Each structure stands twice: as C-alpha cells, then as structure tokens.
C-alpha cells in the first residue's frame, strides 16, 4: 500500500484490508442464496437470513448446519482460524458430499468454507427455489436478486407494536459509542459495518461485524436465534450505518421493537417501521437523535 499526502508518497507498507468472500447458502443441498460477506459467524448469518426471509421461526426449525468441504464430514473450524461456528442446534452434524467444484473446494482441492448447507427439521417446509426466489446479495445490497416488489415485503410472524420496551434518551444515544467499542476488527481495517442487540439496560448482548450491513444484522439476529431468544421483545437493534428498508424488515421479522441507526433512514424504512409499530431512531450521534416513529419508547426529560 502506498500512502499519499498532498500528492506525495509518504509511505509504502503493508495494510490490513477487510476480508470479503462469497458464501453460498444451501437448504437441503439446494442452492438458495449467495452473499458477499466477511468470513466468520457464517452459521449465525445463515440462521439470520433464513429467519429474515420467513423460512424458519427459530432454532428448532433447523436440524443441522455444515460446511460443504468435499468427501468428508463437515464441521466448524477452530476459533483461531477466524471461522469457528456453532450450528443452529449444537454441533454441526451429518455427512455430506459436496460437488467437486461449485465453490466448496479451490483449484488445489482444499475446502474454501464458502458453501454452507442447512438441513431443516422434520416437518419444516423447504423454501421454494426457482427463478423468482433466487438471492444474490452483494456487500452493499441485501435485496439484490428479488424478482418483484411483493417479494421484498414480508409479513412478520411477530407483533412489535405492543412491545413495552422503554429506554432513557441517554441510553439510546449511548448505544453507537458502545457499538464502536465492541468492534474488534474495525480499528484495524476501518471498513466494517456492525450491528448489536441491546437490552433495556443498554448493555450490548452481542456485536457482529461484516463488510455488508445486512450481513452484520443477519449475524447478530442469527446468534439470537441460536440462543433461543427470538422473538426479541424488549431489545433494540443498533446499526453502524443508515437505516434502510431491509434492516427494518429484518428487525421486524425477528420481533425487534426498536432500531437505532447512526445515520439516516430511508422513506421506505420509515413507512415500514410505522406500519410495524416499531421505534426508528436515526442520526443517533453524541447526545442527539431524530426519532421518526414510535417516540413513546424513548423516555424524554
């Protein structure tokens, strides 16, 4: 990396760059989605994605999860590798053979850990996989690949309008700083979004980072799915960027009554939060914020 200041090269040195690789999510061996993500917490990401798409209601709907790594039993890698995982219901289980290519192994036959297969529990209907439900999500777009407007408007099985969550204004405005403090990788790369869940005491229950903001949200919600915490009544979802339609939708699908964003919301995000009865706060910085919907959940002086 060459550092340039005022048109002059001031340093030439290595730099730490955020990782980004494709993850293919399969259900029952059939490809469902490909997302560009930062490797790590992949099984949480898959759980959060499936919940957000209305395909599962909780961890009980998932029998096992495994990486497709060729002709061997798949299991999570050690935490030291940066890709250690826990499955939706304990250890990854089940034997399976990945196709010789398809991203499961590289040119030298080594596993990429970029293909994840989810086995649904008995009685859980598999998703319809066809041209109208073919997901490809980049690090900046979580809705890419949806075939129609109707496909992006999913109805949550959880109601948040009557959630009694109440947070002090100072607690809400303190959440972004707590989120930044919990970001392990951002300090070294400067290129990661983050999401976290906070309880009524303002303490962050989990923090997840990813190159894509929708992936960070899927990871943190997936961790809650794995821990049996969904629906997430009495929690706020905190995100490091803007509040888009897709993030409000993911929060609603997980039963989250409040979304706190460092940056601006979109018109569709505000409309959906209003429809859901969710509290949406944007531009939460320092001691100020804008509350767009559900102001009754923030205790003001």
Walkthrough of the structure:
Helices cover 22% and strands 26% of the residues. It has 301 residues and is of the alpha/beta class. It has a domain at 167-299: Cytidine Deaminase, domain 2 (3-Layer(aba) Sandwich). A 6-stranded mixed beta sheet has the order 10-9-11-12-13-14, sandwiched between helices. It has a 5-stranded mixed beta sheet with strand order 5-6-3-4-7, with helices on one face. A two-stranded antiparallel sheet has the order 1-2. Helix 5 runs parallel beside helix 6 (245-253). The model is unreliable at 72-101 and 145-149 (pLDDT under 50).
Order of helices and strands: EEEEHEEEHEHHEEHEHEHEEE
Give the low-confidence spans: 72-101, 145-149
What is the helix content? 10-25%
Shape: flat
CATH architecture of the domain at 167-299: 3-Layer(aba) Sandwich
Give the rounded overall mean pLDDT: 84
What is the alpha-carbon Rg in Å? Answer: 20 Å
Brief characterization of the structure:
The chain has 301 residues and is of the alpha/beta class. It has a domain at 167-299: Cytidine Deaminase, domain 2, CATH 3.40.140.
Topology (SSEs and partners):
Blueprint (H helix, E strand, L loop, with lengths): L1 E4 L2 E5 L8 E7 L2 E8 L4 H11 L9 E6 L47 E6 L14 E3 L11 H4 L14 E2 H13 L4 H4 L3 E6 L5 E7 L2 H14 L9 E4 L5 H9 L4 E4 L5 H10 L2 E7 L2 E6 L4 E2 L2
């Amino acid at each position: 990396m060459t550092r340039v200041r005022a048109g002059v090269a001031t340093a030439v040195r290595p730099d730490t760059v955020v990782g980004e690789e494709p993850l293919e999510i399969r259900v029952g061996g059939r490809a469902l989605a490909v997302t560009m993500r930062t490797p790590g917490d992949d099984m949480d990401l898959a759980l959060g994605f499936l919940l957000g798409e209305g395909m599962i209601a909780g961890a009980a709907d998932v029998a096992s999860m495994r990486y497709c790594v060729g002709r061997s039993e798949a299991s999570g890698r050690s935490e030291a590798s940066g890709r250690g995982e826990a499955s939706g219901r304990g250890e990854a289980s089940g034997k399976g053979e990945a196709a010789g290519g398809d991203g499961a192994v590289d040119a030298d036959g080594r596993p990429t850990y970029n293909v994840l297969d989810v086995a649904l529990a008995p009685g859980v209907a598999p998703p319809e996989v066809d041209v109208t439900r073919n997901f490809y999500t980049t690090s900046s777009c979580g809705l890419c690949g949806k075939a129609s407007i109707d496909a992006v408007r999913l109805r949550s099985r959880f109601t948040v309008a009557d959630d009694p969550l109440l947070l002090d204004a100072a607690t809400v405005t303190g959440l972004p700083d707590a989120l930044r403090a919990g970001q392990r990788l951002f300090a070294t790369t400067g290129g990661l979004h983050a999401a976290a869940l906070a309880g009524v005491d303002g303490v962050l229950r989990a923090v997840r980072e990813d190159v894509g903001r929708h992936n960070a949200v899927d990871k943190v919600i997936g961790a809650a799915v794995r821990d049996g915490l969904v629906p997430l009544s009495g929690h706020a979802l905190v995100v490091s960027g803007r509040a888009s339609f897709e993030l409000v939708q993911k929060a609603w699908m997980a039963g989250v009554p409040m979304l706190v964003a460092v940056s601006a919301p979109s018109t569709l995000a505000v409309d959906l939060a209003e429809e859901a009865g969710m509290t949406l706060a944007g531009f939460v910085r320092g001691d100020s914020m804008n509350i767009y919907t559900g102001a009754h959940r923030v205790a003001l002086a």
